[in-house]
Design brief:
By secondary structure, the protein is of the alpha+beta class. It has 2 helices and 6 strands, in the order ααββββββ. The chain starts with a helix and ends in an 8-residue tail after the last strand.
């Protein structure tokens, strides 16, 4: 009976994590929508529309937080292959070598476990002089 209860608890936890992972793409789409708006909105753009996108993203992240999901903010942290997925290296005057310079896709943790690694660009340090 105890083994059955443990197995059922494990299966329920795995299903919960699967649902949370499926929901993360919605956050990605909201991030992309806000970034696109910021890069392409003209002077006549409706600022209320952007505010609604940001409010929707904020509400979505609050919902995830209530379920134990936390957003990873790895910029300037040392690159850790256990938590980050390297997409490449970039030169950066601001970020020392072997540290995260840019987040390409947000990573998430849940209950102190990795839900999805952050896809990052790792700094190679400043550009070499005279090259």
């Amino acid at each position: 009976r105890t083994r059955l209860e443990q197995r059922l608890a494990r299966e329920a936890d795995e299903k919960r994590l699967a649902v949370l992972r499926d929901m993360l793409s919605l956050g990605d789409h909201l991030d992309l929508a806000v970034a696109y708006w910021d890069q392409n909105a003209g002077p006549d753009a409706d600022a209320a529309f952007r505010a609604n996108l940001v409010a929707t993203r904020h509400a979505f992240l609050d919902t995830l937080r209530r379920h134990g999901v936390q957003v990873m903010r790895p910029v300037a942290e040392t690159f850790d292959p256990e938590l980050h997925e390297a997409m490449g290296q970039i030169e950066s005057k601001e970020t020392p070598a072997d540290r995260v310079a840019l987040v390409v896709r947000t990573g998430y943790t849940v209950d102190d476990r990795l839900l999805r690694p952050a896809c990052v660009m790792v700094s190679s340090g400043p550009a070499a002089e005279g090259v």
